[in-house]
Amino acid sequence: MTDTPDIPALMARIGACARTAATELAVTEPDRKDTALRGAADAVWARRAAIIEANAKDVTAARDKGLSDAMIDRLLLDETRIRAIADGLRAVADQPDPVGEVLAEWSQPSGIHIRRVRTPLGVIGVIYESRPNVTADAGALCLKAGNAVILRGGSESYHSSRAIHACLKQGLREAGLPEEAIQLVPTRDRAAVHEMLKMTGTIDVIVPRGGKDLVGLVQREARVPVFAHLEGIVHVYVDAAADAEKAMRVVMNAKTRRTGICGAAECLLLHRDLVGGLASDLIRALIAAGVEVRADETLSAIDGTVPAKQDDWGHEYLDSTIAARVVGDLGLAIGHIEEYGSHHTDCIISEDPAAVQAFFAQVDSAILMHNTSTQFADGGEFGMGAEIGIATGKLHARGPVGAAQLTSFKYLVTGDGAVRA
Description:
Elements: H1 7-25, H2 30-46, H3 48-64, H4 69-75, H5 79-94, E1 102-107, E2 113-120, E3 123-128, H6 133-144, E4 148-152, H7 158-174, E5 182-184, H8 191-196, E6 205-209, H9 212-221, E7 234-238, H10 244-256, E8 265-271, H11 278-288, E9 292-295, E10 306-307, E11 321-327, H12 330-340, E12 345-349, H13 353-362, E13 367-370, E14 390-391, E15 399-400, E16 407-414
Parallel strand pairs: 3-4, 3-6, 4-5, 7-8, 7-12, 8-11, 9-10, 9-11, 12-13
Antiparallel strand pairs: 1-2, 2-16, 14-15
Helix pairs in contact: 2-5, 2-7, 3-7, 5-6, 6-7, 10-11
């Protein structure tokens, strides 16, 4: 199926099929789900040539549209990345099954015994943009948590996502599970997104993964609950008590390893005591690595920098660009992050335990790091196998959204003829 003019009817069918599949998945044995994931992983690797061929169509179209190198990097698949997709599917299969986990258990004097137990959410809608690996990550995590999922990938990754989705369907078939457990919306028509956002009868939660325009649209228009993942405006604060070698290693990796991911550093905050020493060394190293440094008045004296403008603070570049600013102390660094950050991931580089403790206590972000590259802000690196995104809200899920975060819970209460007085 390709583009269709009857989007409401299409989405109604997809939603009904997802709800039916979710009912079956809620009572599916863990081994069958894991068999499906491992079968999908084998299919991804066996079909890697076809996936790369499909991806080439997307990359060519992206270049023709004038997408930036950073955005094309997010889209690009090669054998190494396809192996990572297959490994991610297997890693999710190897995770403990969250469904049925007893979160708490206690008895009351009245004679009742209570257990709080993890249960699937039901049907999850995932709306994402250019990264085709999200097709596999989201499908795997939702299945692991006993949920059906409706995937709506971006038009840029249309062919790549279809090729990966075919592998997920093969895994489901081999495990005897309904193919409708993981559905990919088969149209590029944006009306499908708007339809998903109001499918309160069939979708239990929407997870948007993409830039602020997409997330803003979802948050404004959704009638379905949303796990929010806004921008990754990631700060690295280098404290006066920083170790120079650690600072250089962490800052360079945080900015340059992959500039187009949400964990890439976008703003470098430098304690004023470092000016003329480590601060200059860091700025020059970034410039030598091809990074455009948009510097405040103090740092713009360094050759090769570009004077920062007001809108450089709080900007997600997703490219080889970083804003840099001198701050007077830790408190001012925290204040800058509070004003311009997105509550995603922020880092302190320091050997002062008191400074680290204050940073961890006062910065209100989903992920806080110490002497560690912010590029570790990833569910796979957290041992979750994969993640759908980094939730920056405070309700239900926060930080990397893995399988456990895609569950709810219910209370199971038992007694032996207990009655209330």
